[in-house]
Structure formats: structure tokens, C-alpha cells
Specification:
Radius of gyration: 12 Å
Distance between the termini: 22 Å
Strand content: 25-35%
């Protein structure tokens, strides 16, 4: 899946060792999605990453842009074991 990364996302993805294929998989087939409580253009997509210790990746992206524009991505400790 095609997507773009914000400057912030480029930095955080690199620092957190988040693979591009994990972001693509989360965007194309999320386990769960939520609307952002503050910005209606943003969506939070969640997916378990088995090869990273079953941790849950949260990808926040702007759904109004094509391709989707990823604002940030991180492993959400609060979601581990909930999906």
C-alpha cells in the first residue's frame, strides 16, 4: 500500500525501528480503527505485529489525503493483549 510520512513520522519510525511493511499492513488491514478525538481527518489504525513480540502498532494517518499521509506511528503499550 502506498502512503507518505510526515517529517515527524520519518523520525519516529527510524528511532523506533518500525518497518515500512508493518505500516503498510496496518494501513491496509488494521485489526481496529478509531477516529481521532481532536481531528476528524485523522484515523488511528491498530495491528498486532507478531515478529515484534506481539506488540500493537498504532499508525495515525490523515484519511482525507491520497495516498494516506502518516502523521506518526508507535507501539502502543496500552493496547498490548487487547487485540
Amino acid at each position: 500500500m502506498d502512503y507518505t510520512l510526515s517529517t515527524h513520522a520519518v523520525t519516529t519510525v527510524r528511532e523506533r525501528n518500525i518497518r515500512a511493511e508493518w505500516i503498510a499492513a496496518t494501513l491496509s488491514a488494521p485489526a481496529v480503527t478509531e477516529s481521532d478525538p481532536d481531528d476528524p481527518t485523522l484515523t488511528h489504525a491498530f495491528r498486532v505485529i507478531p515478529e515484534f513480540g506481539e506488540r500493537v502498532l498504532r499508525v495515525i494517518y490523515n484519511r482525507t489525503q491520497r495516498p494516506p499521509h502518516v502523521v506518526t506511528a508507535f507501539f502502543d503499550r496500552g493496547m498490548k493483549g487487547k487485540l
